[in-house]
Amino acid sequence: MDELLLAALERGGDTSQTGRYLITFKEGGLETGVKNLQARHSFQMADARDFAEQAVNMQDAAAVDVLSFPEIGVAVMSGEAAATRNLMTAAAADDETVESIDPEYFVFSSHVNPRDYLRGAMRALQFVYDDLLEEAEESEPDAIRSPDAPVSEPLVAGVTWGLSATRAPASRFDGRGIKVAILDTGFDLGHPDFAGRPIVSATFVGQPVMDLHGHGTHTAGTACGPLAPAGPTPRYGIAPRSLLHVGKVLNNSGGGTQAQSLAGINWAIANRCAVISMSLGAAGSPVQPSYTNAGTAAMANGCLIIAAAGNSSYRPSVINAAGSPANSPTVVSVGSVTSAMQVSVFSDGQKVDLAGPGSGVLSSYKRPVTHSTLSGTSMATPHVAGCAALWAQSSPALRGAALRARLLASVRALPFPASDVGAGLVQAP
Fold first, then answer.
1. What class does CATH assign to 133-421?
2. Band (8; pLDDT cuts 50, 70, 90)
3. CA 118 → CA 2, 5, 79, 221, 407, distances in Å?
4. Is 184 an annotated catalytic residue?
5. Is position 378 annotated as part of the catalytic site?
6. What is the CB-side half-sphere exposure of residue 53 using CA atoms within 13 A?
7. What are the pLDDT digits (tens) for 398-428?
8. In the chain, what are the domain boundaries?
9. Looking at 142, 347, 378, 383, which residue is catalytic?
């Protein structure tokens, strides 16, 4: 991640791109397409199936020219391979199995400028995240309270305002038996609220799954946190008996690449996670064919991708469009509302499918803090993911596209444009 960012800064131009390329294949075309690339260009190849449960070790795969993700029909190509063989457009023209070849983007847990991300790393020979993390906690929209989210949000009957707003406590479902994948900065595997709970995990960023950022622990807590946390902490998790799958696709500074996110999606689909929650994105990027392919593949396999719209707006004067992956038509895009049922000031718009509680959200956090109140569409997304798990438990027929349709049909209507809140506020069954 950091090496790619430095290289992008040295190249100049668009520093939101990594310099690598993503090949999106037409339906059923990956196997033939990969064989064609290897036969024509003698590429060094790797496949996610080369790794146990398709949990790709991106460090081991870094030296290959092309790494393919068979569950989603996408492959990542190194910049060197693309440049030396002039394949940025040639492969698409030569091979009828290829849908498109597109630049790969960096992704973050919130709207972060790559130059800001590297501000600390540029001062050292070794990439360290300590000062970057301090900057992120002070400045990123996901990790601060927005002007409409006071320090103390109202709690109802021992639950957070977000759970009350989604009607999760009144549901007779708890997510039992439903696999929920949280693709984020990892998870605090020693968190006391999750003691004794089985957690399936994998890392795609060359760092242990252990969350040293906090963002992933927070989002996982909202979606899958316990029914009754110890002490005075109110209930904050929507699907307390779901089967938590943690994919670390963002590093301990909250950054990653599109290929790492796609590797996480590929892994989640291979593990047949009914719900895939992604509180991350590339702000301002156009619709990415790779994510659209991934969303289609997910629904075809009984899975559903739910992603944060983004936090780059400054309402009411500036309302920016949702970034990727949320802007893909096959991905559920989530906007944010406050406890007063107003659109959060930071919430991006245009392509929004539904909204979730995102301002002043209490959830689990990395130790020693254990719990924290954060704001962002990142916080709204796991509310939707948790409700999706409850709906999935309510009927085995509610998977993939059917689960998406039920989520959108069961919302609470809000008096705002669909471009801000989509169909409305997510509700539990």
1. alpha beta
2. confident
3. 7, 8, 21, 29, 39
4. yes
5. yes
6. 16
7. 999 999 999 999 999 999 999 999 999 999 9
8. 2-105, 133-421
9. 378
